[in-house]
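Let us begin with a simple case.
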Amino acid sequence: MDEEALRGLLESVRRGEASVQEAIERLRRLPYESLGFATLDTHRALRKGFPEVVLAQGKTPGQVAEIASRLASDGPLLVTRASPEHYRAVREVLPDAVYHETARCITLGGPQAPPRPGVTVVSAGTADLPVAEEARIAAEMLGSRVTSLYDVGVAGVHRLLDRLDAFREANAVVAVAGMEGALPGLVAGLVSCPVIAVPTSVGYGANLGGLSALLTMLNACAPGLAVVNIDNGFGAGYLAGVINRMVWEAREGR
């Protein structure tokens, strides 16, 4: 239950359209609900502005489906690192759920308000697409309209420099790169907004599963650059969405 839903519930009680007992039943699941194998944070949308996100990795399809069916009543649903098997199980209980194959995400619903521009997701190579797409979907679920620039890494830097207009209106940039991980530092030196760097595990042996890209990003000299964990497109996209939302709320005086 998010803030808007809670306000609507209280208004319906005030108008006499819902009884106090009905409201109590709706609120009974706050602040959490135990499923035995999982404890759902049903209060998160009130605290964070977005419901709990499900990490499917390590969970059985049945567990993911049960969690998703309970969380779907709290607002938009986002499941990350989901396999086709996870999706088939979720679709049995939530027929309108959508599977994003490249991003390995399941979504249902979305923001009620029109998306606000201000997030750009850029990736160094096509092999980085799963992580970049995970970031894009996370930012979109938080209410951002996302501009995507893919396969514009430093091996052909003219491809990036030719698209600098895509960064001018950005309030946050997610820069995804594997190999040596040089792209985020370059982007951070060209833009005024925060840049969120995502190292990926894409690369040859000395890439060390993304460790060398991570170290490059942590040691970047360009200011305004923050780094998330290896392959954590969700974390970067979520943070970019929060930044963009806060910028728009400040502009609107909220």
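The second case is a distinct protein. As before, the sequence precedes its structure tokens.
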Amino acid sequence: MKKLSVVTIAKNEEANIAACINSTKLWADEHVVVDDFSSDKTVEIAKANGAIVFQRKMDIEGVHRNWAYQRAKNEWVLSLDADEEVTPELKEEISKAIQSDEHVVYNIPLRTYIGNYWVQHGGWYPGRKDRLFKKDEFKYEETGVHPRVFYKGRCGRLNSDIIHKGYEDFAELFRGLNGQTTLEAQKWFDDKRKMSVGRVFWKALDRFFRAYVRKKGYKDGMIGFVVALNGALYQVFSYAKYWEMQNNKK
């Protein structure tokens, strides 16, 4: 009978970590939390709820994730963020999937919320991600923003959701945008990417159109509009910071 390790990367997640860990209890063999030296009670709460805790400073996301997954003692790993929970239906699917050698990776749909609202359109759902895998046959690209995944073998699909309590409100969504665009701008700068105002303007319009119209973000009302606008602003803010880095270098 094959066993499962759950691995969670966390920093200052005292509001979420207990629910995350408890959603995997009784069926997962272990829950490993890799903490980025939180200043709140994340570590204490994680230990109190039965998790095995390691601490490591987050440097490059891909490097950090690969290091975290190697802390698991079992072959099969479920990667679960601190603001995510596993549904009972997904538990059943995972339990069956890991007994088979048909696939080395499974992608899982994410049901993401802003506040109490499930964002169902605009490209946010099902928002599948590769989260269940054999750790020795799966690796993240060792880059700092949007790292790709590499694996040897076949990828399967599970149908039940991970619940992602993504953002408490719009303010948290916009704070995330600020941090993500800083990393994106740094990636462009390091890669010496050729960017221009015209190109960025076109990419921003395209992102908004695809999310709001083609992927039917308008069906989510005001939230759908903000989500689409957020995607467009991602391009604008990234370019503004990239432009600033270039001028500071000069």
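The chain has a mean pLDDT of 96. The longest strand covers residues 4-10.
Keep these points in mind for the review questions at the end of the chapter.
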